[in-house]
Amino acid sequence: MKNISRRNFVKNTALTAGAGLAMVNTTEAKASKELFVHHVYFYLKNANNEADTAKLIEGLNALTKVPTIRFVHIGTPASTNRSVIEKGYAVSWLCFFDNLEEEEIYQKHPIHLKFVEEYSHLWDHVIVYDAIGPRREKQK
């Protein structure tokens, strides 16, 4: 074993600890600037069925209890009319997560699994758009 002075030991320990903290702080800073967006469009088996739409919205409201969700929006098609607007879906589910890992926790969460089990009979299919990018504050 190499003989090391107390001064060098303390210096090396401080440098190692500092490097570790810098790595943790960089990771935390990156994670806090990252945003994961999960947008799901539900197309019901019984399109335009108000009872089925209400039932699905009931299930989505229960799904908001998953703790990793930071912000959520449940919506139905707006009355806008332009050629680029898709209006064939019944309900839109939009939620934001701090990062991909938080969204993966949501996917496996018992509340989410229960939602799929109890409400999937209502939809014909879903389309999911996932996106990741930096957090940005709106410019004033």
From TrEMBL:
- The name this protein carries in UniProt is Dabb family protein
Q: Where is the Stress-response A/B barrel domain?
A: 36-131
Give the domain of life. Bacteria
Q: Tell me the SUPFAM superfamilies matching this sequence.
A: Dimeric alpha+beta barrel
